[in-house]
## 1
Amino acid sequence: MPALSHSRAAQVAYQDLLRLHLEETASELIGSVEERVRNGRSYLYDRFRLGTEMKSRYLGEGTPELRARLARAAELRAGAGARRAGMTRLARILRAEGFIATDRDTGSLLLAFARAGVFRLGGTLVGTAAYALYQGELGVRFDSDELAQTGDIDFASFERLSVALGDRVEENPGDILQALKFDPVPGMPDRQVWKWRQNRGEALVEFLTPAFGDETVKPLPALGVSAQALNYLNYLIADPIPAIALYRSGVLVQIPRPERFAIHKLIVADRRRGGADQAKARKDRGQAAFLIGILAQDRPDDLAEALAEAQARGPRWRQRIGASLSRMPDTAAILRDLA
C-alpha cells in the first residue's frame, strides 16, 4: 500500500516547530562564539566567564545555518515568550493533524537527555525511536504497526568526537536513568555498563558507538557513559539531522539521515539472520522497504548516493545489502531502477 502524505498544513507546522526549537537553542548563547578547527572541520563554542574562570560550552558544527542563528541570539532571546507560545500552538496542530506523539516514558527520557546536552554533544537517537520521527522529516503517515516499539531506546555517538569536544553533559545520563527507574545492566565479563533496563517495564536503553574491527565497550567522555561498539554504525550516524519528538511542545533531538537509516537497516537485517533475532530482522527489512519506497519517489538522488557510498565500502557491505535484498524483490527492483 502506498504511503500517505500528511497534509500541507501539518508539514509546514512541523518545519516551523523545528525552526523554533533550533532558534530556542541559539538564544541560549551566554558569551561570545569561539571557533575551533579539527581535521578540517569547524566546531563552535559559547565562550563565557563564570566567576574567575573562562568556560567553553559546545554549540555544534560550524554550519552556515548555525552561524546565522547565533548571529541573531540577542534578537531571539527577546522573542522567547512569543516563540514558546508558538511551539505550544504548533504541537497542538500536529496532534490534530494526526501526527503520532511520543509515548510518555520515551518522551520524558528524551526531554531529560536534551536538557542535559546529550544531543548537543553528538548523541544521536537510533533504532525504532528514531524511525518514528521520520513522519515529520518525510511528511508521511505511519500506522501503528510501523511504529510498534521493540522496547529499546538506543543512542549512538562517535568515540573520537566525544573525546575531542572537550565538553560534558550537564547531568550524567546514568543519574537521569536511575531517576526514571532504570537499573544498570553490567556487561560480561568486564562489568562495564552500557545498557539500562526499566525496573517496572520492558524498556531497555543502550549506548552505542562505531566499531572498526573488534566490537568492544568504549567510553564516551562527553556523554559520561560507556558504549557498545558496533561495526557499520559509523555509516548510520554520519551527518545526522535535527528532528522533533512530539512530546509536550516538542523535544529537539538528533537522528540519522533517512536514506542512511534505510540502507543501514538492510545491513543489520542480514547480521540478525537466524536465531532469536529473526523477528527483528523482519522488522528491519520492513522499515527499510517503507523508507526506500518513499525516498525513491521524493529524494531519489539522496537514496542513490547513500546506496553507492555503502556499496563502495567493500565486499562485505555489498554482500550484506544483497542478502537482504534477495528477500525483498520489490525493494530490490526499486533500487535497480535508481541506477
## 2
Amino acid sequence: MVQPIKRLDKKKAGAEDAKPAKPEEETGPPPKLEVPEMEFNAGDVIKGDVIEHEFILNNKGEGVLKVLRVQPTCGCTVTKYDNEIAPGKSGKILASVKTEGFSGNIAKTINVQTNDKEMGTFALTVKGNVKTLLSVKPSERLSLGLVYVGEPIEKEFDITSEDGQPFEITQITGTDEKISYNIVLAPDKKTAKFKTTIPADYPVGPIQGNFTLKTTHPKVPTLNINLFGTMREPLSVFPQSVNYSGLSKDFVVSNPESPELNKVITVRFETEATLEVKSVKSSLPFVEATFEETQPKQAYSIKLHLVPSKVKVGPFEGAIVVLTNKKTITVPVKGVIF
C-alpha cells in the first residue's frame, strides 16, 4: 500500500543550487531503494502535449528512505516527489515534459539523490517521439547563414496536415515589416505554401523574421515559422584601415622589405565574379599603392609600400582610394615616424 504523501514539493529545473546535497549521517537501520523502472518511453506524442509519468520508488529496507534532491537537466521538465518513504512503503517521482519546443525523438533526464548508500545517485529518463500535426518543410526554423545585399531572397515553406485534417490560415503576424510574405492554400485545404521575400535593399546586420500563423486545425491553433541570418555588403574590404605606428626613421631606411613597411588590403566581391579594380591612389606621397588581381574578377590585393627616401619624421594621416566598377572605396591610413 502506498503511504500517503507527507509533503509534496515542486522543484523546477534551475530553481535550486546546482551543488549536490550532503546527506546527514544516518543512525539506525538503513533504507534499501528499489526502482522498478528507470526509463519511460511515451512513444509518439503530439507536439504541444505534455508527457507525464510516475516513477515508483520502493523502500525495501528497515530505515526511512529520504529523497534529498530531484534535479531535471532541462528547463522543460518539472518534477513532484515524496521526500520520505517509510520502510516497506512506496513513493513516487512525477516527471512532466512539455513538448512544445521539440520535434522528433527526445530524451529528458532527471538526476536523483537519496540517502541510500548503494543508490545515492541515479538518473531517470523520459523519452518520446514528438510529432507535429502541421509539419513545416524545410524547417520551422530556417538559417539563412550569410546573405548579401543586392538581390531579393525568397524562401518557401511547405505546410502539410499530417493527419489529413483540412485547415485554413486565419491570421499571420510578422515581427519584421521589411520581410514580405504571402500564403497559398491548396484546394483540399490539407497543404499550404508560405512564401517570404527579403528585399534587395535589406539593411546590413542581423535578420530575424518571426511569423505566427493562426490556423483552424483543431489541435494546432498556432504555428511558428522563423528565419534568421546575417546580411552583408557583397563588396568587402580588409582591413578597413591601415596603421603605421611606432616606426623609427632609421628602421624604415634600414628595412625597406619589412612587413611593417609593406601592408596588404584585400578587396573581394562575394556574390559573383564581376569585380574590376580600375585604379588605386594614395594621398600620401611616401606611401606607394599598387594592385593585382588574385582571383579573376572577384578578389584583388592592394599593396602599400612605405618609401624610405620620402618618409618624414612625425605623425601623418591620409587615405588610399580604390576605384572599382561597383563603387569607390576609401581606406584611412595613419601612423607616426620618429
## 3
Amino acid sequence: MTDPSKPATIYDVAEHAGVSISTVSNVLNKPDRVAAATRTRVLQVADELGYLPKATAIDLARKQTGRIGVVAPFSTYPSYLRRLVGVMRATRAQPVDISLIDQESAATASSPLLASMPIRGVVDGLVVMGAPIEASTEERLASRGLPVVLVDADSDRFSVVNIDDHGAGRRAARYLLDLGHRRIGYLSEAQASDYESQARRRLGGFRDELAAHPDVVLATTQAEGTMAAAREAALALLDGPDRPTAVMAHFDDLALGVVHAAAELGLDVPGDLSVLGFDDGPAAEAAGLSTVRQPFEESGSVAAGLLLEAIGGATQRRMTLLDCTLVERRTTAPPR
C-alpha cells in the first residue's frame, strides 16, 4: 500500500495500475508501444498518485515561481521558435518560468500528443502548438483542471489561436490568378495521421478560389517536410510540356526546394515558373521568395495572454483567428 507521506514511485504506479514496471516506462517514454486503454489507465493512476519522473521531481523542488509549458515541434519547424518569442514577450513581466517540450511533427508523429506526460504539479498551464490533442488526453487534462491553449490546432474544450489557413489559401490562389496563371501546381507536406491539418485547410482554400475558374488546371503533389524532398517532388511535377507556370508550396522550405528543381531543369524563376511560399521566415527574405506571411510572434503572444487569464481563473473558451499578408518578392511574375 502506498504511503501518502512519501513521493509515489514507478513501482507504486505499476502496482496500482496492475501492469509491469516496463509498461509504465513505455507509457512515459514510448507511448506508441502501449495500447490506448492501458496508457490511459497508467496515466490516470500516475496523476492520482502525484507521480513524477525523478528528474522532474528534482526540478520542481527548486521551483520558486509559476510554470507554463510550451509544447511544439521546435526541432522540426524553426517557425515555432518565433511563436515562442511571442510567448516570452507576453510573460516577461509575469512571475513564471517557461518549460519547453519538443514534440514530433504532427505530420509524422506515431504517438499521440502529450500521451506520456504526467501533469499533476508539473506545470500550471500549457500552450500546445502545431498539433491537436486526442480526445482522451483532452478529457484527462480538463478533468485535472489544467489550463490549456492550442495554437495552429483545433479543440472542442480549450481556447484556440489559429491563423486563417483557408482564407490564406484563397488569397494565395487569387494572387496567382491575378498574375494570369492558369496551369498551377500545389506542393503540400505529406502527413501520416488523418486530421484537419493546416495543410488541408490551406489547400482547401486554394482549391475553393480556383473553383470559379474552369479554365485553370491544378496539379497537386506531396513531399516530406524537407527542402531535398520538395526538390524531388518538384522535379516530377515540372517534368513535361504542360507543366505548371506557377507553384504554391505549403511552407517556405518546400518552395525553396521547388526553386532548386527549377534551376536543375533550366527553368527561369520567375520568367518560366513563379514560386510562392508560406510563412516568411529568414530564408524566404534572403532568397527573395514571394510568400504569405504568418503572424508568428502575435500568435504566441495571444496564446500566452489567454493562458495567463485561464491560470488566473478565467473560464470562458476563446477562439482567435489571425490574418496573413501576402509578400511579393522576386519569385513571382505573370507567365510568359
## 4
Amino acid sequence: MSLSNLTVSRRQVVGLGLGLATTLGLVACGSSESSDASGSSSTDSSTDATEDTEDETVQIDSSAYDALIATGSVADDAAISASTWATKVKDAGTMRVGGVQTSMLFSLLDETDGKLRGFDAGLAQLLARYVLGDESKIENTQVTSDTRESVLQNDQVDTVFATYSISDKRKEVISFAGPYYTTQQSILVNVDNTDINSVDDLAGKNVAAQSGSTGPSILEELAPDATIQEFKTDEEARAALSQGRVDAYVIDTNMQLGSMVRNPGKYRLAGDPFGPVDAYGIGLPLDSDGVDFVNVFLHKVEDEGLWEDLWKICIGNRAGIEDVPEPPAIGA
C-alpha cells in the first residue's frame, strides 16, 4: 500500500490487537519548525483536540519494539577508541540525547513505564547500545526547534534526535550525521471527501496550512489557485478541517500520519506526497568526528535490517503501509 489515498480504519486498530490510548500528548515535531509552533487554541480547536484524544489510537507494539532494540550491535573497543566523540560518551557512561516526548510516530513517552518509543527514540537507543552496550543508558533532554542547536553548542547534550531537518544554515553551527529519513508535504482530507485526490485538485479549494511552516510557500508555488488559510497550530488546522471550514490541510507527511494514527477512520491522505524532499539528520557538535562514527552506525542499522524493522513497528504497521521506503543515502 502506498501513501496515496491512505486511510487508517478503526478495523485496523482491532485487527492489530491494539488497545485504546486516551491520555497521549499532542502530535509534534515534524520536519519543519511549525511542529513546535506555539499559540492558544481556539474553543473549537480545543474541543477537537479533546475529541481526538478519546479516539482509538493505533498504539505501538511495545514488546516488539523493546525486543528489536535489544538485538542492536555493540561496537568493539577499537571503534570506540578511534572516535573522540564516542570515547567521551563511553567514559561518561551515559549518552545525553536531545529529543522530544510528544511525537506520535517518532518519540512518544509511555507514561505507564516511563519509556520513550518511536523511530527517532529507537535509533537513539540503538546508538546508546552501540556505544555503551546498554540502550537504557540515556539521559534525555527535551528540545524545541529554538533550542536544538544551542544544546549542542553549549555541550548540554551529545546528540539530537528530533526529526531534525538538515539545512545549510544549521550546518554553520552544528554538524549532521545521516540523513536517515526523508519526508515531503501531504494533503489531509476528511475520509468522506472524494473531490480531492492530488495537489492539482486543490485549485479553487480552501486549504489549511500552519503558519511558520514551509506549507504556505509550497502551496503558493504548486497550488496557486488554492485559497490558503494559515493557522498557528496543528490542532487548529485539523479542527477547521473536521468542521468543514477548510477542504484540506497541507503539512509534513509524518504529522499527517500521526494524526491518522490518533484518529482512525476520520481522515485520509489525498494523493501522493509532493514538494521538496526534507531530509532528517542526527545533530552533533560542529566538526565532531562523531559524524563518521554515527554514519558507520547507521550503515550497520540498515545492513542488519533494523532500520526496516523499526520503521514497520513505529510507522508502517500503525498506519497500514506495507511498502517500506528506501532509506536515503547516508552522507549525501
